[in-house]
């Protein structure tokens, strides 16, 4: 009887290890996502790219309307930032795939609002809260950056990308 219990315990421990490994961060959670970023905005390209390059391998796409811009689906691009002075930008859908999408509302006021969306791969054995579609769990981390008294857009941009980088690092 003792041998059966010991064997059952060993099998149970192995099953738990395999289940935990299948739900770990290494499966589709951004660990393989590159540091390349595409920035979509109508204005302030020099400021945004200059600030983003401190944290990301960034490039800029001039956009007449970031709300409706078709975002890149290049798997080599790990991050997409869409910046607008229209608060509806925070309701925009993220890019397809495993990319991080940072939606930024910056109208020059003291609070900059950010919605950082990211997808995590899921398996049948993993259960988590969120919006599951196509085998991926879409999560959103919303936060505000206090930029009171900072009217210089290069400094505002630095606040934005520093915070986006820090939040993304927590996920990766």
Q: Which short descriptors sum up this protein?
A:
7 strands, elongated, 7-stranded mixed beta sheet
Helix content: 25-40%
Separation, N- and C-terminal Cα atoms: 46 Å
In DSSP terms (H or I, runs of 4 or more residues), the helix count works out at: 3
- Series of H and E elements: HEHEEEEEEH
* Residue fraction in strands: 25-35%
What is the averaged pLDDT score?
A: 77
Poorly predicted runs are 17-31, 123-129
Q: What is the 3D form?
A: elongated
Main structural class: alpha/beta
Spatial order of the strands in the main sheet?
A: 2-1-3-4-5-7-6
Gyration radius, in Å: 20 Å
| Strands, count | 7
Summarize the biggest pleated sheet: 7 strands, mixed
What features would you describe in this structure?
The chain has about 170 residues and is α/β, with parallel strands linked by helices. The chain contains 3 helices and 7 strands, in the order αβαββββββα. Strands 2-1-3-4-5-7-6 form a 7-stranded mixed sheet, covered by helices on one side. Mean pLDDT is about 75; it is low at about 15-30 and about 125-130.
């Amino acid at each position: 009887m003792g041998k059966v219990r010991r064997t059952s315990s060993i099998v149970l421990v192995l099953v738990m290890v395999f289940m935990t490994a299948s739900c770990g961060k290494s499966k589709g959670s951004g660990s393989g996502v590159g540091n390349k970023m595409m920035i979509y905005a109508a204005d302030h390209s020099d400021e945004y790219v200059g600030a983003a390059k401190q944290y990301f391998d960034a490039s800029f796409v001039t956009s007449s309307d970031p709300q409706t811009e078709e975002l890149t689906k290049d798997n080599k691009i790990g991050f997409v930032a869409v910046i607008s002075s229209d608060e509806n930008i925070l309701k925009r859908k993220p890019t397809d795939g495993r990319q991080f999408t940072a939606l930024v509302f910056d109208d020059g006021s003291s609070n900059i609002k950010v919605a950082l969306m990211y997808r995590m791969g899921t398996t049948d054995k993993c259960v988590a809260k969120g919006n599951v579609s196509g085998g991926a769990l879409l999560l959103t981390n919303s936060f505000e950056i206090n930029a009171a008294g900072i009217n210089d857009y290069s400094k505002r941009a630095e606040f934005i990308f520093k915070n986006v980088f820090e939040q993304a690092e927590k996920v990766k």
